[in-house]
Amino acid sequence: MKILILNGPNLNLLGKREPEIYGSLTFEAFFEELKKKYNTIDLHYFQSNVEGELINKLHEVGFSFDGIVLNAGAYTHTSVAIGDAIKGIETPVIEVHISNVHAREDFRHTSYIAPNAKGVIAGFGLQSYELALQSFL
């Protein structure tokens, strides 16, 4: 099984940015833990702060991977283009969020990804990614 974890803007700052919301662990360290725990999955990781790069990556793997775990960050609430990219590919996508976006600002309650995703997991910290991986197993 081949799965991509795809992170959007500002998620490169995990471990530094608002640790009271996002925790103190870097995503790279967390990803290494996931690879050890789920060593039967061919796990890949990509992060970008650029919307077009996220779309390009969805197009690149969206017909050959078994699953995509996507945390599009703020693009979740603004990017029709990412939603359309997900609609255009075959690989199922799970939308994830570290925080409970529904307990935050009103604008975060709308997702342009969810209508085209297999499912949505939010509010369980970094464990949201692990729950998404388990959904593919």
UniProtKB/TrEMBL annotation:
Active site as annotated: 22, 97
Keywords assigned: Amino-acid biosynthesis, Aromatic amino acid biosynthesis, Lyase
Annotated site residues (Transition state stabilizer) in this chain: 17
Pfam family, one: DHquinase_II
Pathway in which the depicted protein is active: Metabolic intermediate biosynthesis; chorismate biosynthesis; chorismate from D-erythrose 4-phosphate and phosphoenolpyruvate: step 3/7
GO biological-process terms attached to the record: amino acid biosynthetic process; aromatic amino acid family biosynthetic process; chorismate biosynthetic process; quinate catabolic process
Keyword Thylakoid: no
Gene3D superfamilies: Dehydroquinase, class II
Domain of life from the UniProt record: Bacteria
Catalytic activity annotation: 3-dehydroquinate = 3-dehydroshikimate + H2O
Entries under PROSITE patterns matching the protein: DEHYDROQUINASE_II
One annotated GO molecular function: 3-dehydroquinate dehydratase activity
CDD domains: DHQase_II
Record's function text: Catalyzes a trans-dehydration via an enolate intermediate.
Family: Belongs to the type-II 3-dehydroquinase family.
Protein name per its UniProtKB record: 3-dehydroquinate dehydratase
Gene (UniProt): aroQ
